Recover the amino acids of this structure.
């Protein structure tokens, strides 16, 4: 089996395996406490501890140099105008830095800049092939759709953990189900999430270069999220579960008085288990790009190194070729060439 | 030197299809023309670098020390603890592939390991294997692999196919910067004795004498004096630079490429004319005679060891502030590293232009001004007497240098200068996706502008040359301007190969061409001895014809 198949199928079977485990587990009443209470608590615990631990590990290493990647005109002479875009792309003040980070995190600024470059062959003259660069927003669109849909899905789920459901969550539900087709009304976010995840998966598999670089660590979280999305959609629209019981369980977890109501369908346990695995997996995976982007030194630093000192905590003296040694070596020649010296002999 | 295939032979072979085998099983092919020679032990001894041995690549004589794995892994751990960038960049890549077709080496070679994401994975895989639980347990399935000799050879091959240009970092949604990883990876290579000769020779010469060409103080003075004489011959104006003069107001530091070889020398002549024109009280230094920092191409520490000379000399000479010439990575280092290495710089004053009185507030801590900032300010304040018609034979496009673009952001100053020294309509931009922050590298920077890897250099510079060819064919552009000495050293070779009709020029050279002096002789040629359009005999003939 080649590299791609190994990494892809291991991920696929891992996710399918998780589905089977959850399904079988939910069949035995005695295990429902395990899958309904123990696993969720454990997952949240691992998620939080892992997240904090990983961030601390990163933060323990200092940032020795101020190395922002500058993407716009720097601040120099007062009459050189910089529009807001340039001020954000090459931030010279903290305010603008916050703006740059906000754009990066909320709007995926850098990905929005994405280009596609292609070699256009010239059949008549093989030495005259041309590179064509054009703006390519599909990856940005896929990523933004995926992340925002995911965010809405998570927020929407908070209604299971609150009683009474706060107004914002109720409103969100209405907006999300705005296009009232099908019963119950289809949530846009769920559909967008699954479609976007499919897109991200499809490009990984169909593009030869992407397939070449992809690891199990890339397929697994995507397949896991697809599993979560699909099981959620199936649960809502096809294999309906006892929603009141689900809420009872969720509220019990949230208020630390866990109860496991009888008769929730197996599909719920599959869904829940996959979510738990995602939570527990998060801190040890590439999903840490979410907190990581905040700590990325090429993005989170102000470009003001020429007028504000940046201190390197481990800065140490280095051996360099001192002027005195230099002059000692070249003194005679320097004098002969009329170059001023410190000592005449 | 291996024969370099012609463009028409090179391009048909260029496709972006990765091999069928997984990347961990593909070994680099050390084909002549594609890799740099290992450093001669002599240079390594000069700067006390470890394991100076005679090495021969690729035929097996890599002369790695017995405990090389231990050294590399300890070095990696040490750097993980010192550089948050490395830790974060190792951990958060999602392999989205946005960086892939942004790298000029990938676009020029089609080798998938030149996609920044995969070049980083070459190092990340080792990191996962030794520093991550998942990698230790799952091995290849977690993207981890043992640190074998093949892996270290692969690092040597590909980390010297990265020019630290940061174009990938611009497009990465998390700002993951291959340049940072390449630099740290090169430090690891150096820790077991693996360095490339061209970079190491330059570093050793800079360290020992003062410039990458190893010029002695008297040789440096001779070269610059010769250029001053050339100025006098062409313009009739005496430009007399001073050397190591105490009490001068400004220390001028330029990259050594500017006094060593054409076309940089014409830029140097431009500097001398400019300073003469405004009567600047400045000195050059034979000791700090190199702004370009070749040390930073091989390690942070070596960068600091070479950079030391600039402040050290400014302090010794008692100047007020430092003016820096046209150089790319010199300015990345001066901008993002120098004040941190040596600050606070309380022996210098906040730079003020003695001609215009402009206070360079943006340089108030590190006390160094870029020549383009300085010149733009002079022009803005009407201090230069310029005749753009003297550049009428030059139809130019501008190459933003990687380091001043993505490690500083100096875009408008050089353009302002260009627009004031060229006749209207003679400045044409390349396509927007290939300039400014999205600029393409010359393909030979960061110490790899050797001769033995010429094929690779021509491939790496292909995207840049391709954009130049576009404006050449469409608008008749015949010059490529830049504010970087490495560009002036490498782009002529590149353009000779891809677009031979286009020449390379520094921006201050154009200023030198355009400056009008009260006591000058009649100008009939530019600084390169090329006839001016519309001046001298040619102009008279034209006038006669018109009558």
């Amino acid at each position: 089996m080649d590299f791609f198949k190994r990494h892809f199928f291991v991920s696929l079977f891992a996710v399918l395996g998780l589905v089977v485990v959850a399904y079988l587990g939910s069949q035995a009443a005695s295990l429902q406490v395990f899958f309904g209470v123990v696993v969720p608590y454990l997952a949240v615990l691992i998620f939080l501890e892992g997240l904090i631990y990983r961030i601390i590990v990163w933060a323990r290493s200092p940032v020795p140099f101020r190395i922002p990647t500058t993407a716009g005109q720097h601040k120099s002479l007062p009459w050189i105008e910089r529009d807001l875009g340039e001020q954000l792309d090459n931030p010279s003040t903290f305010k603008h830095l916050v703006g740059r980070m906000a754009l990066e995190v909320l709007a995926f600024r850098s990905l929005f800049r994405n280009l596609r470059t292609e070699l256009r062959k010239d059949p008549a003259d093989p030495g005259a092939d041309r590179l064509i660069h054009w703006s390519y927003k599909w990856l940005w669109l896929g990523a933004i759709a995926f992340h925002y849909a995911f965010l809405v899905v998570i927020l929407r789920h908070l209604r299971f953990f609150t009683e009474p459901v706060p107004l914002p969550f109720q409103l969100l539900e209405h907006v999300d189900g705005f296009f009232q087709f099908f019963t119950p009304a289809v949530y846009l976010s769920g559909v967008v999430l699954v479609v976007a995840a499919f897109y991200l998966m499809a490009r990984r598999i169909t593009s030869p270069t992407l397939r070449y670089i992809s690891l199990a660590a890339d397929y697994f979280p995507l397949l896991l999220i697809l599993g979560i999305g699909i099981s959620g959609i199936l649960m809502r629209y096809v294999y309906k579960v006892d929603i009141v019981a689900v809420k009872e369980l969720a509220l019990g977890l949230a208020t630390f008085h866990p109860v496991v109501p009888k008769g929730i369908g197996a599909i719920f346990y599959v869904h829940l288990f996959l979510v738990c695995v995602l939570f527990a997996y998060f801190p040890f995976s590439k999903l840490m790009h979410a907190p990581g982007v905040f700590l990325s030194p090429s993005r989170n630093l102000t470009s003001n190194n020429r007028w504000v000192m940046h201190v390197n905590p481990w800065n140490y003296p280095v051996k360099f070729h001192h002027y005195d040694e230099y002059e000692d070596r070249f003194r005679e020649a320097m004098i002969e060439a009329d170059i001023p010296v410190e000592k005449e002999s | 030197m291996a024969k370099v295939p012609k463009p028409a032979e090179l391009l048909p072979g260029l496709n972006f299809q990765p091999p069928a085998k997984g990347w961990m099983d593909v070994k680099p092919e050390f084909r002549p023309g594609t890799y740099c020679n290992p450093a001669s032990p002599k240079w390594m001894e000069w700067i006390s670098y470890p394991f100076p041995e005679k090495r021969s690549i690729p035929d097996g004589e890599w002369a790695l020390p017995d405990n090389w794995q231990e050294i590399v892994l300890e070095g990696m751990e040490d750097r993980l603890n010192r550089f948050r960038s490395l830790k974060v960049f190792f951990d958060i890549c999602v392999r989205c592939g946005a960086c892939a077709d942004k790298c000029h080496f990938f676009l020029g070679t089609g080798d998938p390991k030149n996609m920044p994401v995969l070049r980083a994975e070459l190092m990340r895989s080792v990191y996962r294997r030794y520093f991550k639980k998942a990698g230790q347990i799952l091995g290849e399935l977690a993207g981890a692999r043992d640190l074998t000799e093949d892996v270290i050879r692969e690092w040597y091959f590909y980390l010297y196919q990265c020019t630290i240009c940061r174009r990938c970092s611009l497009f990465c949604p998390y700002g993951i910067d291959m340049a940072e990883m390449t630099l740290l990876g090169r430090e690891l290579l150096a820790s077991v004795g693996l360095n490339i000769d061209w970079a190491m020779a330059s570093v050793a010469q800079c360290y020992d004498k003062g410039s990458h060409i190893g010029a002695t103080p008297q040789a440096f003075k001779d070269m610059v004096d010769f250029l001053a004489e050339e100025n006098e011959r062409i313009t009739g104006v005496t430009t007399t630079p001073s050397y190591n003069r105490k009490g001068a107001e400004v220390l001028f530091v330029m990259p050594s490429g500017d006094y060593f070889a054409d076309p940089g020398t014409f830029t140097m002549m431009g500097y001398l004319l400019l300073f003469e024109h405004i009567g600047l009280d400045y000195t050059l230094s034979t000791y700090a005679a190199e702004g370009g920092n070749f040390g930073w191409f091989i390690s942070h520490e070596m960068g600091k060891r070479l950079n030391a000379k600039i402040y050290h000399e400014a302090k010794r000479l008692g100047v007020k502030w430092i003016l820096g010439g046209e150089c790319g990575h010199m300015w990345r280092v001066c901008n993002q590293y120098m004040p941190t290495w040596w600050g606070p710089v309380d022996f210098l004053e906040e730079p003020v232009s003695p001609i215009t009185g402009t206070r360079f507030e943006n340089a108030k801590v590190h006390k160094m001004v870029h020549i383009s900032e300085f010149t733009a300010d002079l022009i803005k304040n009407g201090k230069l007497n310029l005749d753009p018609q003297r550049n009428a034979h030059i139809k130019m496009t501008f190459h933003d240098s990687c380091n001043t673009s993505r490690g500083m952001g100096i875009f408008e100053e050089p353009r302002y200068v260009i627009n004031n020294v060229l006749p209207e309509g003679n400045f044409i931009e390349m396509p927007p996706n290939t300039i400014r922050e999205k600029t393409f590298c010359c393909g030979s920077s960061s110490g790899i502008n050797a001769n033995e890897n010429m094929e690779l250099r021509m491939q790496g510079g292909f995207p840049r040359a391709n954009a130049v060819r576009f404006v050449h064919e469409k608008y008749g552009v015949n010059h490529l301007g830049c504010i970087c000495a490495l560009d002036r050293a490498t782009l002529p070779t590149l353009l000779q190969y891809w677009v031979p009709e286009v020449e390379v020029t520094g921006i201050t050279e154009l200023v030198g061409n355009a400056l009008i002096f009260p006591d000058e002789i009649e100008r009939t040629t530019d600084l390169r001895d090329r006839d001016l359009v519309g001046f001298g005999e040619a102009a008279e003939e034209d006038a006669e014809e018109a009558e």
About this structure: The radius of gyration of chain A is 28 Å. The first helix of chain A runs from residue 3 to 27. The domain at 3-314 of chain A is CATH 1.20.950.20 (Fumarate Reductase Cytochrome B subunit).
